[in-house]
Amino acid sequence: MRGALVYAPTALGFLRHALRANLHTSIRAMPPRTPWAPNRYPTSRRSDHVDVYKSEVKGKVHVPDPYQWLEQNSEETEQWVDVQEAFTRAYLDQNPERQTLEDEIRQNEKFAKFSSPSLKYDDRWYWSHNSGLQAQHVIYRSKDEKLPDFDTEIGPGGEVFFDPNLLTTDGTAAIAASAFARSGKLWAYGISRSGSDFFTVYVRPTSAPFAQKEGSDVLPVHTDGALPDEIRFVKFSSVTWTPDSKGFFYQRFPTRQSHGSAEEDKAGTETDMDQNAMLYYHRIGTPQADDILVLKDELHPEWMWHMEVSEIDGRYLILSVSRDTAPKNLLWIADIEKNTIGPNINWDKLIDDFDAEFTYIANDGTKFYLMTNKDAPQYKLVSVDLADPPEQRVFREVIPEDKNAHLGAITAVNHDYFVVTYKRDVIDEIYIYDLSGKRLSRVGADFVGAARVSAKRQHSWFFAQLIGFTNPGIVAKYDFTEKEEAKRWSVYRKTVVAGLNSDDFEAKQVWYKSKDGTRVPMFVVRHKNTKFDGTAPAFQYGYGGFSISVSPFWSSAILTFMQRYGAILAVPNIRGGSEFGEEWHLAGTRERKHNCFDDFIAASEYLVDNKYAARGKVALNGASNGGLLVAACVNRAPEGLLGSAVAEVGVLDLLKFADFTIGRAWTSDFGDPHDPHDFDFIYPLSPLHNVPKDRVLPPTLLLTADHDDRVVPLHSFKHAATLQYTLPANPHPLLIRIDKKAGHGAGKSTDKKIKEAADRLGFIAQSMGLEAKHS
């Protein structure tokens, strides 16, 4: 769940030039645009199924689960899904502005999006590019070793190397992972279908691009030009080549019959527990059945494996072992020159207990640089020499912990330097350090937002992608070869959004007190014509879990909603994330999970009390762990505070989450419902089991997808049925939207994102009765 489960609002382009006439708007509190008649939900069959749990306080606890049958992939469940989706669709489509909203999104999504360029081993530059409405980003590359100059080059630049849009006609196939061999001649890439976390790895010579032939309408065949290698059942894995380019490491799970070639679309619809992960080595040109098993641990079926190879010398295998989503891991290292790849590798178990997190950054021979939270909740950089006997090893501090800033990332660059990204009060700062830990300079000091650095130790430059609430994206370059420091940092490429003027918006950060007195920061964004006079609606987004920070982001969709309806965007950085280090994370976990809900509700109350928003006009939104957050707050918030809620792909049954797919890994944050002690704090928090019977709930829309094998859709199925049964007379709709051929969010096509945004934001507007009026 950690890392991959963060699901910030999707940046969907919105609102074109023609809508600028709507900039001056006033909002009238109105009845819902789509009248709602209670007592008309589809009937959901209730069974007498009961689960028995052990409680430290009460002994055995019998918990009814009348919709347990919705956990099964049965014909009855499929019929329920069809009926619910049609019921919800009928409501959403009654919104007279819904189609206009979708059209505007589609029109204003037509702006180019791109990544930082990266120089690969074939001495060509590679980058991703989407012209605007393409289903998936296309991988482009330069025609030679020269870095493209986008001041003079028109369009995406270079040539197409791999176009995933040619894999399917509906855009539901996406690249899940990829890596270039050091020879520069081969590229391994994983393809996920319909949003599943499972993917299949293929290998293609870099001399054989996968692109549409000019002048031809015939789609190319994916296997044309590719090697016969096909690696299946891969999940939560990187692809790590050995230095000789003869093969790569990958993680896979046991064979599943439902993944047969004739039933490919069933990958992602299973709910079986993900366990017994295995680390394999694949040698190019051999069948997967001959792959070499490197690691598995039958005594610890929950363990998972992540392999790296030391960057410069390529001599060491670096294995990180995790057992759940907590920031703790084992770190084992092996010398390739002294080992044969296989189950008998002699591992130097540098870190052999789950006490803290250690991340490989770089090495000079046997001297390794590691980023860690060991005795440093805000993280620090240490070094250790593997040449020393294990009992004599000393972890020497290189960059000490900064008590006032979270150390988010470190990358080695230009041989003798580190690029270090800190998060100070949720704003990223980039610094240059030398290998001794001396801070040399800060770069991009005028930037406010989130930064992602792309660098290689052997290169004399690095790129940084910069983004913010009012900045759709900048790729900046730092060049060590420039003699003058002032000339080293420059803008390489800038995102231009034709239909939305970022200068019309402004963002600020405020601090508020939560229920227990803890100070929590919150970003507040508004259109400059929106007044803080207590009348505006608010779109409040949050996550609060798994040590994931919600940094400033760009969302054309949300900005358009704000512009059209005079709304504000509020992003409280509640406990459970890593905004202030591991202590901030732990304060929102297990028996302290209620702090996340308290923080989020307190944010809504602050907005109302300080006239940023109107009472009853605050709309909550979150996904994954954020979906849990929204659903829990809907149950708990004071009646009348909220105006609407959209909970996406949420973990809603906290008594069952550990029984499906990768859910067992989340017990580090949620607790283990099968442990009597943990059960006693989990049960009162579970949204499914705590729907209030005697209160009015705000309009609520649950979003899920049929191929979500991360947070399986049964969570939302059961919660929707429970809401509708418990509160049939609720004066506001309680609905569920179920996407098809889609997963937890990764790899979703642009078209699906557009339609989902129109439904999500359209539901909020129609259920709260918002209208945009010309002044």
TrEMBL record:
Gene Ontology CC annotation, any one: cytosol
Source organism (scientific name): Daedalea quercina L-15889
Keyword Hydrolase: yes
Peptidase S9A N-terminal domain span: 42-485
One GO term of the biological process aspect: proteolysis
Quaternary assembly: Monomer.
Gene3D superfamilies according to UniProt: alpha/beta hydrolase (3.40.50.1820), Prolyl oligopeptidase, N-terminal domain (2.130.10.120)
EC number: 3.4.21.-
Pfam family of the protein (one): Peptidase_S9
One Gene Ontology molecular-function label: serine-type endopeptidase activity
Signal peptide, first to last residue: none
The entry's keywords: Hydrolase, Protease, Serine protease
Family stated for the protein in its record: Belongs to the peptidase S9A family.
Xref: InterPro entries: AB_hydrolase_fold (IPR029058), Pept_S9_AS (IPR002471), Pept_S9A_N (IPR023302), Peptidase_S9_cat (IPR001375), Peptidase_S9A (IPR002470), Prolyl_oligopep/macrocyclase (IPR051167)
Recorded catalytic activity of this chain's protein: Hydrolysis of Pro-|-Xaa >> Ala-|-Xaa in oligopeptides
Protein origin, superkingdom: Eukaryota
This protein's name: Prolyl endopeptidase
Domain Peptidase S9 prolyl oligopeptidase catalytic residues, every copy: 557-769
